[in-house]
């Protein structure tokens, strides 16, 4: 099941960890910024995998849409999707390590001034040396350098990105559709 579909202006569509070409752009809604996934699962960052799993199961049961009344269904479904997204990332050791590094970087970067807000669709897919296993997306900085995102950054919704040449920082605005 693909939870997030992102369309770039060059008609490339990013689904999970796959990039496919489509003939037209799709209108999608704006998402929130990168979230603390440990907070969503009500765990500490140092929690063991089994503790994360227990917390996920408890929260998934609590917020499952089939267990809610009609008036609570919309908010609980949104929370269920957030809990499921957090578990999908934190249950994979490789993605968890990338998330931990990205979250630490984001927390440090919050003190930096944001020069611009850029939609994810403004990034251009390109080739990057040394990163053959995942696609790379670039947004040109006004200094001539690049703001760079990898596929895993997009999966994690990394929203504060520094230029690779200067100190300018942008906030990335993501678009999303629930499938």
Automatic annotation (TrEMBL):
Keywords of the record: Iron, Metal-binding, Zinc
GO MF entry, a single one: ferrous iron binding
Span of domain DPH-type MB: 114-175
Domain of life: Eukaryota
Gene3D superfamilies linked to this entry: DnaJ domain, DPH Zinc finger
InterPro entries attached to this UniProt entry: DnaJ_domain, DPH_MB_dom, DPH_MB_sf, J_dom_sf
Residue intervals of the J domain: 36-103
UniProt xrefs under CDD domains: DnaJ (cd06257)
Family: Belongs to the DPH4 family.
Protein name: DPH4-like
Organism lineage string: Eukaryota, Metazoa, Spiralia, Lophotrochozoa, Mollusca
């Amino acid at each position: 099941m693909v939870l997030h579909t992102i369309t770039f202006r060059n008609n490339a569509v990013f689904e999970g960890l796959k990039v496919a070409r489509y003939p037209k752009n799709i209108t999608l809604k704006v998402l929130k910024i990168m979230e603390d996934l440990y907070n969503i699962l009500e765990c500490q960052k140092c929690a063991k995998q089994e503790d994360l799993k227990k917390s996920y199961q408890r929260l998934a049961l609590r917020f499952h849409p089939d267990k809610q009344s009609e008036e609570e269904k919309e908010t609980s479904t949104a929370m269920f999707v957030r809990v499921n997204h957090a578990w999908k990332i934190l249950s994979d050791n490789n993605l968890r390590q990338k998330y931990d590094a990205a979250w630490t970087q984001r927390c440090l970067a919050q003190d930096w001034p944001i020069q611009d807000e850029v939609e994810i669709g403004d990034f251009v897919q390109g080739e990057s040396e040394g990163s053959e296993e995942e696609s790379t997306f670039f947004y040109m900085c006004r200094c001539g350098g690049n703001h760079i995102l990898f596929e895993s950054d997009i999966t994690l919704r990394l929203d504060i990105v520094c230029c690779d040449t200067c100190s300018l920082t942008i906030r990335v605005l993501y678009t999303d559709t629930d499938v």
